[in-house]
């Protein structure tokens, strides 16, 4: 039996129960099951909800919003911008790590696996959680965006003092789901080369600003 809701960590279940029982999520489950049965899709089926399984609801301190999983072999692991151990870093991730170097003086890391962030309370949330191999955006507008918008709204409503990092035009549209009286919203250009090379990414200080906010609100800063 294929039931995607079984794969979401129990800490999220009380907050998502209504969403998981809606017709669109049932339809989405059927679509994803069909896609994974007929085609090569990413991330692997057991990693679709890694963002939630490595960052439990009570631990969420920072939310980073991406758009689609990587669509090449071995890359996607269910965390936005993250790749598996030993995989060449994609251009956006390279620019993320370069900005961390500039911002915090942290040396460029060997591993592009961002589980180390997730385990500290960083929810690495793609708007669309699955994709067909080599076909970017192939699983958009099938219901994932409804689900992930609900996640953002639930975090905004149910938690206090979360930092939302909205990079690029797509992510910035999510600001309408966030109560910026309760939370900190930091925006910048996207880390993709197109945006970064035009001067919209480097020097944004997202990472130091997020840590300043967390510490000012009594939270432990993220070791980026």
TrEMBL record:
Alphabetized HAMAP family for the sequence: UDG (MF_00148)
Protein name: Uracil-DNA glycosylase
Pfam families: UDG
Coiled coil start-end: none
Function: Excises uracil residues from the DNA which can arise as a result of misincorporation of dUMP residues by DNA polymerase or due to deamination of cytosine.
Keywords assigned by UniProt, alphabetized: Cytoplasm, DNA damage, DNA repair, Hydrolase
Class in the EC hierarchy, top level: hydrolase
SUPFAM superfamilies listed in its UniProt record: Uracil-DNA glycosylase-like
Reactions it catalyzes: Hydrolyzes single-stranded DNA or mismatched double-stranded DNA and polynucleotides, releasing free uracil
